[in-house]
């Protein structure tokens, strides 16, 4: 029997190009359908129909690491890019592609899809998807998968005689759909939109594309099936007496703290009103820097196991907690011991699990802003809690805030310490981060903070006056996030200047942006703070056991030479003083492309070298005491 005659690839490309040009001329898929320029029935391949569906959902940027598991999709993207409908961004790592897509959605709201081959590449994307999963960011993942006819093992599939293993693996992380049947594509697109455009808890959506399904024909396909409505937002929490109970509890409490989590990103004005009406103070998550301005008198900044003096004072002494849009992650609430004196909890969240996380709680399941508006209306109808001056609670918290500012200022006044590793005085991280973030705010640049010591010192230091200036990936604390996120600065519809603040360890996890950033015209800077160790873990080891182990080495790396090896990168030494670092940042700003600044920084036992930790954490030899306290508190 003769083999089937293959489709002429050039003829198919011509048909696709003609269709793409019709869509481009009409102004989009839906416009082309409405005018009849695009027929109501199409003979089309599965992955071309997929691209149409993504265009309808405003996904036109594809960050790719193509392989044998995605050649058909790559060909469709090639043709549609020729017509000006999509943009293909080749990346050197699936991790980098995922981080850049997450950053693009976080900073600008623009959607993107990550495209990988089958096997290792898909699994690298899976690992990186911890970031959008943990921070509520909607990202599409289009992943090659084994063929559906099971003709034998496919290269790079999970090496077991069982189908659907990738589906099982990916479904642990988020919503997953295997396009086993081509005609199920509209259902896949609906599931995907519900995941990536969820109004309160968006996340990754993994669409597994078997290699033999991708080119499968859909004869007489109705493209109207791809028009999927976005899911509606949840309204304010329903009232079964919970609002009255919340108002009563707030009026009776003497020491109210409001925990502002990621779900409260858009509820800043309502939070500010609540603080005044309830005579409360706020403790903010690093995820929402700027949602409550840094200078707000009731802002006690960050709290938890790596918090601030004022934030942890408010948490430790509050008799009522209002938890707004927070998941109560271990470090943010000191492994559930952060509020030892709280007698009641008012939980405002769209997730019922989070809303009843604490005992003795009044759960209000609904949108944060809308729910807070109703709570505030109830409070406004009550007599003022404070009629003269300020309350003892507010006064005590303000005193702690002033102490914290003085504590930080002392470190800024002593920016350099002698470091035996470098054999000289070098800048401390607090001093360097303070200068860099002040500089970025003055330039209206966007800051990305990487994991580790840079991240922890960073969210204790940043002084945001509005959202959108600083993005700290504390959800997963993924090493290499900041440098990869910088790629988004060159992908945004309105490009922005990005400053990635990263440690030497995090940077070497994902240095690909040195190449891809140049390729995509990124205007931004990598500030690599080098103490030649994983300082956050070294410090934790010393705090718990008195000695560090396996978190450092003495291998010197010339990061300036490394950066300069990539054409287009301006590589600079940050020097050893505040003045020299500022000059390097100005040089980076003036450079039209990507810059790298290498900055040696201090590591050691001098307390002026860091900002300290003030909470508890259920790790290492702290476990027993933390767990006993948690059960004693009983909330």
Rg, please? Answer: 26 Å
CATH topology of the largest domain: Rossmann fold
* Number of spatially distinct domains: 3
Q: Please tell me what the overall shape is.
A: globular
Side-by-side strand order of the widest sheet: 3-2-4-5-7-6
List the uncertain runs.
Answer: none
Residues in helix, %: 25-40%
Strand content: 15-25%
Measured distance between first and last alpha carbons: 73 Å
> How many β-strands, per DSSP?
21
Counting DSSP H or I runs of 4 or more residues, the number of helices is: 24
Say which CATH homologous superfamily of the largest domain is assigned. Thiamin diphosphate (ThDP)-binding fold, Pyr/PP domains
Tell me the name of the CATH class of the largest domain.
Alpha Beta
Average per-residue pLDDT, rounded, comes to 94
The biggest sheet amounts to: 6 strands, parallel
Per CATH, which architecture of the largest domain? 3-Layer(aba) Sandwich
Q: Report the structural category.
A: alpha/beta
Characterize the structure shown.
The protein is α/β, with parallel strands linked by helices and 635 residues long. The protein has three domains: 9-150 and 164-226, Thiamin diphosphate (ThDP)-binding fold, Pyr/PP domains (Rossmann fold), CATH 3.40.50; 242-397, TPP-binding domain (Rossmann fold); 414-604, 3-Layer(aba) Sandwich (Rossmann fold). It has 24 helices and 21 strands. A six-stranded parallel β-sheet has the order 3-2-4-5-7-6, with helices on both faces. Strands 17-16-18-19-21-20 form a six-stranded parallel β-sheet, with helices on both faces. Helix 12 packs antiparallel against helix 15 (392-413). The longest helix is centred in the middle third of the chain and has 22 residues, at 392-413. The chain is globular.
